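Continuing the series of single-chain predictions for the mutant panel. This is the parent chain; the variants come on the following pages.
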Amino acid sequence: MTSVALALATCAGIGYVRWAPGTFGSLAGLLLWYLVPESPGLQIGAIVSVFLVGAWTGGVAERHFGATDPSHVVLDEVVGMWITLLFNPVGWQGAVIAFVLFRVFDVLKPYPADRLERLHGGFGVMADDAMAAIYANMTLRLTIYLLAAFPHWAL
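Parent structure:
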């Protein structure tokens, strides 16, 4: 069962990338998002389901690697990207902006994400990225609004 949990937590091994595994996990999340139907209900269901799976697998991974929030776990970045994109209708340019915003908030971990990161177990592994993603989602939403309100700012 540990091997299944690690395969899920590392997003089929993406978490073993030596350089910036979180960035690659976020990229995987972005790509996987396009497989989720555009139905808000299905998107929320996918986010909640994968968050719960991530809480379980994150706990298994913490015990396996002997570390809190091990860098090999990237399922939290997948969920983070999904939360960032939720309810934000974006094309490829918006998806790139979403990716950058999530990475910035995930690295900076503004309050309370920094506190959530300290929670033990898989819930803590997932919760800090979910909070960072909420900030990224709100910033993306504001960016979309401003670009629509001021079309001469468009990319």
